[in-house]
Write a structure and sequence with these properties.
- The protein is an alpha/beta fold.
- It has 5 helices and 6 strands, in the order βαββαβαβαβα.
- Strands 2-3-1-4-5-6 form a 6-stranded mixed sheet, with helices on both faces.
- Helix 4 links the parallel strand 5 and strand 6.
Length: 182
């Protein structure tokens, strides 16, 4: 995607990144209280472009293609990577990037690489651990503490535990979005 293809008008953007099948579209749907707002698929790698969703004529939610498992060629994956890097590095409208990590499997190597790349490029991000309704409380606390410690996150970087079923974490995410729009 070329940045000239961005939607008009130019508004603040809240971007969702993560592995294929981590729950980006489900999270977006939960945040807007609409079941089929962002397309959800059980098959990993269905999001193949940068998708913009206009929210209340005020800002965009932006769903990036998932990384990791997807049934596409290496050439296609490289195109995605180039487009995503261009989108992130040359886009002044991004307020924050939400990095989604699957609570069932924990952070994978490509999640850690992405976080390190964001830190290196001084890109603001928040980590959202998804599917937490499927893990017990002890594992949730352990996972959150491990992320903060092992990734050497600064005090400004938040880690939010989120569930599309119970909506735990939804209010915290929406409050952060509201704060960044002021």
């Amino acid at each position: 995607m070329d940045l000239s293809e961005k939607p008009v008008p130019s508004l603040p953007e809240f971007t969702f990144a993560g592995r294929s099948n981590v729950g980006k579209s489900s999270l977006i749907n939960s945040l807007v209280n609409r079941k089929n707002f962002a397309r959800v698929s059980k098959e990993p790698g269905k999001t193949r472009s940068i998708n913009y969703y206009l929210i209340n004529e005020l800002f965009y939610f932006v769903d990036l293609p998932g990384y990791g498992y997807a049934k596409v060629s290496k050439t296609e994956k490289k195109k995605w990577q180039t487009a995503i890097e261009k989108y992130i590095l040359k886009n002044e409208q991004i307020r924050i990037i939400f990095i989604l990590i699957d609570g069932l499997v924990g952070p994978q190597e490509n999640d850690l690489q992405l976080i390190e790349w964001f830190k290196y490029n001084k890109i603001g991000f928040m980590i959202i651990v998804t599917k937490i309704d499927r893990i017990n409380n002890n594992r949730r606390v352990q996972l959150k503490n491990t992320l903060v410690k092992n990734l050497e996150l600064d005090e400004r970087t938040r880690v939010v535990l989120f569930s599309t079923k119970t909506l735990q974490g939804k209010e915290e995410i929406l409050n952060n979005i509201d704060h960044m729009l002021r």
